[in-house]
Every structure is written in structure tokens, then in C-alpha cells.
Automatic annotation (TrEMBL):
Entry's Gene Ontology cellular component terms: plasma membrane
Keyword list, A-Z: ATP-binding, Nucleotide-binding, Transport
Name the record gives this protein: Amino acid ABC transporter ATP-binding protein, PAAT family
Organism domain of life: Bacteria
Domain annotation ABC transporter: ranges: 2-239
Residues annotated as signal peptide: none
MF terms (GO), sorted A to Z: ABC-type amino acid transporter activity; ATP binding; ATP hydrolysis activity
Keyword Transmembrane attached: no
Gene3D superfamilies assigned to the protein according to its UniProt record, in alphabetical order: P-loop containing nucleotide triphosphate hydrolases (3.40.50.300)
UniProt-listed InterPro entries: AAA+_ATPase (IPR003593), ABC_ATPase_HisP-typ (IPR030679), ABC_transporter-like_ATP-bd (IPR003439), ABC_transporter-like_CS (IPR017871), MetN_ABC_transporter-like (IPR050086), P-loop_NTPase (IPR027417)
Similarity comment: Belongs to the ABC transporter superfamily.
UniProt subcellular location: Cell inner membrane
Length: 249
């Protein structure tokens, strides 16, 4: 179980996250939507301490900290329990697909190289890229690179995988294979917090959809409810604009 209470993050005095409360059950699939610049990435980054929050409490399993007092060890624990999938994949260009997946196990978890590579091969099988073990990112398609990015997150065996617009950088032809892998993880009940504009993914896969605006959670609920009968005018307005650009649900 993951819990965020009263999370605040300011940039230049402006609260980008203005007191976020959020609890995520084990196995829950949550999709976060909202206008650009509304704090969605910042929320994910604060959970991972890629950004240092200004106030709040964070609980991840048996780790429970005031984020302003988190020790170096607390931060490392939080990072080990939250894996991140970036919009731009963030792979090491000079490492193979196998090495990219194994790297965190070796550096963060201090696994011996052989054990880490064996795990990475298992992951490559699961993400359908066993034949690309020795390929460097530049020789992979965008879809394959992002699948390696997801494979790296899977290898970490974190409590939750945080996805920040994982398909937004992809050419349209690669989007489905990445969403397909995410759906596979969802079926396995991997806990996921996903920022995305892919409304049909949210509709099909999410247990809960959260609409954020202006650093607040404005509204949340099961996808049928949030998409079918949004209550807040800001949610209604946002959905009208987004759905106008996407295939009808
Ligand atoms: N490192 C930073 N320094 C200053 N401002 C930032 C930084 N990161 C994000 N912001 C600002 O915080 C706001 C929220 O950004 P972000 O979390 O990226 O929004 P979203 O992911 O919803 O588009 C934006 O106004 C953005 O310009
Ligand atoms: Mg963002």
C-alpha cells in the first residue's frame, strides 16, 4: 500500500502540487489525466524523490516518512520501491537491451552480474524481445526501446511502477505494442500509476481515473463514472477537448 498525505511541491514560490492526498492499494491500476502543466509529472517525480517535495507524508509499505525529513536511506528505499518509466525511455545508449535491464539490479540491488543478466533474459522473454538482448537502443524501434524501459522497471520488482506519458514520444505505429505490454502487466496486477492521454487504455484497464488540475485532485472514480458522468466543470471541459481528438470510447 502506498499513501501520500498533504503532498506539496513549489517551484519559485508557486505550489505546483497543493496538498495531494492519494492512497494506492496493492494491485491497483490508476490512470492520472489532466491538462499540461498541472503537476502530473511532478507528482510522480515526488514519489520517487526525483524532486524533493516541500511538505507531506509518504508511506510505501513499511517506509513511512515526513518527506522533508527523509534520510538518504529513506530516499533510496523509496526509489527501490517505485520504478519509473519515462516518456523518452531514458535508456543508456552505450548499453545493450540486456545491460539496460540488468544495470539497476547490479548498481542498486548489488546483484552479481551473472544473476542480474539471468533475470534480464527472463524479462526480455516476457516483453517479447529475447532476440534483441544484444541490440543497442539506437538499433531498436521507439516501441522496442520503450518496452526495454518497461522491462527495466519490471526487473526492479518495485511496489509500484510509475509511468509518465509512456507513449507520448512514440510514432503512432508503436503505441499499441507498448500499451499491450502495459495491459499484460495490469492483468498480472502489477500496481501501476500511469499518466497518459490514452483514454481508451484508461477505460479498458484502470481501476480508478484521477483528474488533476491546478495542483489538485479535482475528481476521481472508476473510468465508467469519470468518463460517463464527470461532475466537475473542469473535468467535463477537459474530457470534451481530449475526446474530440481521439477515437470515441
Ligand atoms: N524543475 C522545474 N523548475 C521549475 N518549474 C517546474 C519544474 N518542473 C516543473 N515545473 C513547472 O511545474 C508545473 C507542473 O509541471 P509538470 O508536473 O511537468 O506538469 P504536467 O506533467 O501535468 O504537464 C509547470 O508549470 C511546470 O512549468
Ligand atoms: Mg508531464
Amino acid at each position: 500500500m502506498i499513501k501520500v498525505e498533504g503532498l506539496v511541491k513549489r517551484f519559485d514560490g508557486t505550489a505546483v502540487l497543493d496538498g495531494i492526498d492519494l492512497a494506492i492499494e496493492q494491485g491497483e491500476i490508476i490512470v492520472v489525466i489532466g491538462p499540461s502543466g498541472t503537476g502530473k509529472s511532478t507528482l510522480l517525480r515526488c514519489l520517487n524523490f526525483l524532486e524533493q517535495p516541500d511538505a507531506g507524508r509518504l508511506t510505501i509499505g513499511d517506509l513511512e516518512v515526513d518527506v522533508t525529513r527523509a534520510s538518504r536511506a529513506d530516499i533510496l528505499t523509496a526509489r527501490r520501491r517505485t520504478a519509473f518509466v519515462f516518456q523518452n525511455y531514458a535508456l543508456f545508449a552505450n548499453k545493450t537491451a540486456l545491460e539496460n535491464i540488468a544495470e539497476g539490479l547490479i548498481v542498486v540491488n548489488r546483484w552479481p552480474k551473472q544473476k542480474a543478466h539471468a533475470r534480464a533474459r527472463e524479462i526480455l522473454e516476457r516483453i517479447g524481445l529475447a532476440d534483441k538482448a544484444d541490440a543497442f537502443p539506437a538499433s531498436l524501434s521507439g516501441g522496442q526501446q520503450q518496452r526495454v524501459g518497461i522491462g527495466r522497471a519490471m526487473a526492479a520488482q518495485a511496489e509500484v511502477i510509475l509511468f509518465d506519458e509512456p507513449t507520448s514520444s512514440l510514432d503512432p505505429e508503436w503505441v499499441e505494442e507498448v500499451l499491450g505490454l502495459m495491459k499484460q502487466l495490469a492483468r498480472e496486477r502489477q500496481t501501476m500509476l500511469v499518466v497518459t492521454h490514452e483514454m481508451s487504455f484508461a477505460q479498458d484497464v484502470a481501476d480508478r481515473v484521477i483528474f488533476m488540475d491546478g495542483g489538485h485532485i479535482v475528481e476521481q472514480g472508476p473510468p465508467g463514472q469519470l468518463f460517463g458522468s464527470p461532475k466537475d466543470p473542469r473535468t467535463q471541459d477537459f474530457l470534451r477537448k481530449v475526446l474530440a481528438t481521439q477515437v470515441a470510447l
